[in-house]
Amino acid sequence: MKNTRSIIIGSLLIIILAMAVGYSAFATQLTITGTAEIIGEWNIRIINIDVQDISKGCNAGQPKYTDTKATFDAKLVKPGDSITYLITIENSGTIDAVLEEIVFKEEDGGSDDIKYTTTEIADVLEAGQQTTLTVKIQYNPETSVNPSIKNKTITGIIQYTQK
After folding, report:
1. For residue range 60-90, what is the model confidence (pLDDT) as tens digits?
2. Looking at the domain assignment, is residue 9 inside a domain?
3. Is 153 within a domain?
4. What does the DSSP 8-state code read for residue 75?
């Protein structure tokens, strides 16, 4: 009986050893490696400001701009005078953009005789495309008195987001 038990235990150990060798012979380890890279570029910017229309005797100054800021300094002479600036905005990136918000605010304390008007710009600015914004500054043609406050500042914010 003891001999039979030893044979059974020995046989089981041999079977387990054979199974372990068989498993390792048929087991394969797979390794997967990956790399991700962001290649999209976000680049909405101002690329130019042109003076489109200027009343005789007025001074449009030298408009200045950076990628994200435009500044101009208009000098108007008499009622009805105006200066129009054309601001070109370009999507130089590779990601399409959607116009989220455009807000122009006149600062408090400025002359009521200076009027600012703007045009609409593209709601969607696809990669590589341009849009233009026209800003017209006009001395109120209906004013009949020389105003005591002679300037007015406007600040505009144009907000594009990813499409």
Report:
1. 999 999 999 999 899 999 999 999 999 999 9
2. no
3. yes
4. B
Q: Residue 120 falls within a domain, yes or no? A: yes
**Beta carbons within 10 angstroms of residue 96's beta carbon:** 16
One-letter amino acid of 98:
V
Overall domain count for the chain: 1
**Is 20 contained in some domain?**
no
103 is in which domain, residue-wise? 44-162
CA distances from 36 to 31, 33, 39 (A): 17, 10, 10
Give the pLDDT confidence of 29-47 residue by residue, as tens digits: 788 999 999 899 999 999 9
Burial class from Cβ neighbours inside 10 Å (0-12, 13-18, 19+) for residue 21 reads exposed
d(CA 60, CA 88): 17
